[in-house]
Amino acid sequence: MAKRQAWRGMFRTTMAVALGMALVLPVFPSHAEGADAAPSAASEPVYRDLSRSFHDRAADLVAHMTLEEKAAQMQNTAPAIPRLGVAAYDWWNEGLHGVARAGQATVFPQAIGLAATFDVPLMHEVATAISDEARAKYNEFQRKGSHGRYEGLTYWSPNINIFRDPRWGRGQETYGEDPYLTERMGVAFVTGLQGDNPTYRKLDATAKHFAVHSGPEADRHHFDVHPSERDLYETYLPAFQTLVQEADVDAVMSAYNRVNGEPATGSPRLLGQILRKDWGFKGYVVSDCGAVEDIYKHHKVVDTVEAASALAVKNGVDLDCGTEYAALVKAVHDGLIKESEIDAALTRLMQARMRLGMFDPASKVPWSDVPYSVNQSPQHDALARRAARESMVLLKNDGVLPLSKDIKHIAVIGPTADDVMALVGNYHGTPADPVTILRGIREAAPQAKVVYARGVDLVEGRSDPTGMPLVEAQYLRPSAGDAERGLRGEYFRNTDLSGTPALVRVDPMIGFNWDRGSPTDNLLARGEAQPDQAVPSDNFSIRWSGQLLPPVSGEYVLEAAANDGVRVYLDGKPVIDRWERADSLTATQAKLKLEGGHAYDIRVEYKELERDAGVRLAWRMPGAKAPFEAALDAAKDADVVVFAGGLTSDVEGEEMKVNYPGFAGGDRTDLRLPATQRKLLEALQATGKPVVLVLTSGSALAVDWANQHLPAVLLAWYPGQRGGNAVADVLFGKADPAGRLPVTFYKASEKLPAFDDYRMDGRTYRYFKGEPLYPFGYGLSYTKFTYADLKLDHNKIGKNDKLHVTVKVHNAGKRAGDEVVQLYLRGVGTPHERSNKDLRGIQRITLQPGQTRDVSFDVSPATDLRYYDTKKAAYAVDAGRYEVQIGASSADIRATQSFTVD
């Protein structure tokens, strides 16, 4: 859904003034029309009777609608029904690791990074902060009477698919490869989003994508998955079941693919039997966007949109992300579906809106007075930094870390060192003041000389902004003889620079990035845009004009990067002309001979078509070295080299249209670092300087060479808006690294099963038989922990009993630190084949030097030792002998004890 974004913007300021206390606008006609008093209870229809249940009110409201109105309300962009007091509503909102696509919001670490914290209470804190910001934004949108996309309360997160294969580009959105970790993180996230009020929901969370969905991205609209029943029930379904039955998640999103021949969007077994009958799900199901169309267009299960829409509704899909459900009107007339079936689905949707308080006075709804100022609040910013710090995984350390606070000269090199895109991952909001790795190191080491060189592009063959400096204001002026610096910017509400501009101002530099929520958030943050100057989030254009003032004579390299089209003219002649759509921030260069002291008329034109927006104007002055050589020069005089590389969601992500060596459609075909980065790393290591590798990534990387040749490797994931500070906190020892791997890191030589093979055999720590590069649950520390006195309160229990497990964990080092205590269970004398072992307990604890703590777990055989009996088509527990394993990773087991289940 999302086109890739890149952030190298100028704006580093938050909104200083809250926009006021937000109000929820009532949707009843009597309220909306400003009546002095509501009609008497006797004259009120049931749907307006606040004393009745949400279900009764929703059913009555649906009964007042025409068939055409019902069909329209079952599409994500639901129009208003003024005669019934129903406001327009778009169900589509994103909040994977912060409120996304709705302007400025706190950007926490990407989901995979949050999972790497192994800190369930922290996940709940993060989700609560996200829901605070979501409510604050909703209140403000309501106050303004705005009902557009990304302005509502129904959030399409979390993604709890199992990250079964490291090649999947969307694995970054998940909580990793383990069902138990996914369950615990998922429950914490959902409860933080939805709140704990007994009457109203704070937000609606959505568990997605149901089910058996994890790539390949290029095939997701048409492939048919045939998992074994054991894999289905032991790997792919447990997290969904737990979120339904324990977290009471209000929504489930269906997947694009088929499962055993049935489209997941319209599967009688998945949606009807398993979700509703077996698990008792009472909420609503929304399709993934365009998935109803896939039923007839790609899966070809039926021939028409009417039949596809009828099939989806009859089998449990209440809401269509798309427009296909407009065909339900004809489907009813053609006898493909009964109107009563539509009523049942729509009642669930209206009940959800009522439970969110959309039909009640603001005074009755908690969170209606959450002010806009909570967005990007200092408290949330601090939480983002703490979450990022906890997500850092130290993969290797030969003693070079932590860096000395007295270090004098640091070379920061690499394509993700000063790239905000390396912080935010995908599905994110607009960070007000993002701290890159370079900036974080500079702030942490003010005493040191910190030299930066990008060195290489992220991947080979990509038209990637090269990290050239922006053309600064001192080299630009709006017109001849003007004392002001910068260029005159004209902002248009169309893509062809026509008509009267909505906004005219002088911009000191051209270095902008806007998420798809609203570019005007950045303008408003500077206090320069009035309501009548609003620029739309899509389909706009900008013209900058003035003069370019080169300081010296010689050959310049001028670079314009944009998402989408960009043109540059000097003295009326085009020097850069790339006016087509781009799926990411794409750079085009021109070599120009310019005379120092001469004023050149310059015009830069930019158009944004849809989704993400960004544009920058940069240059390399005469005499500057090529990036690769500049990086080696920077390293030669340094005491230490910090190389920041890896990936960004410009190359790994969702159904991408661009391919590079090692990448295909957002997925990966090569688990190694891109070749451009490997070459530079080897050259840097050959200088003899100590090289610390900091990896940004949403998935596992085969960094065998780095593990063998470099003294330290730190995995930062996509760490969010404060990621640079968090990296520096760990590099300089302000924080003890304690993140753990939620996925297995395989060696480059490992031959994995076919990507489109959904059997779990040979995948993840639970079924992989080989030796990983880094195992699941792995992560180093700056201190040392020991384990002792593992005790079980029984050595024999019944399958419905509980086993209490305790162990002593001691900090034997000289500094405080966090340890993630992990409990695994393994069958050692059971008749049925099982996984290698299963994670069934995690606790992240903080210990001072010399401190010892008792850590306890409870094991319930009925849930923790169950397997799926295919003959009985039910879960079962084997009698036999099992082993409790306690340790610091799946491969670092420090203590074991056996017990039997009778």
Strand content: 15-25%
The main pleated sheet reads as: 7 strands, antiparallel
Poorly predicted residue ranges:
1-41, 516-531
Portion of residues within helices: 10-25%
Q: Tally the beta strands.
A: 37
Average pLDDT works out at 92
Computed CA radius of gyration, to the nearest angstrom: 28 Å
- The CATH superfamily name of the largest domain is Glycoside hydrolase, family 3, N-terminal domain
- CATH fold type of the largest domain: TIM Barrel
Give the CA-based shape: globular
Query: How widely separated are the two ends?
Result: 51 Å
Total of domains: 4
The CATH class label of the largest domain is: Alpha Beta
Task: Supply the CATH architecture of the largest domain.
Answer: Alpha-Beta Barrel
Backbone structural class: alpha+beta
* Count of helical regions: 23
Keywords: Glycosidase, Hydrolase, Signal
InterPro entries: BXL, Fn3-like, GH, Glyco_hydro_3_C, Glyco_hydro_3_C_sf, Glyco_hydro_3_N, Glyco_hydro_3_N_sf, Ig-like_fold
Pfam family, one: Fn3-like
Protein name: Beta-D-glucoside glucohydrolase
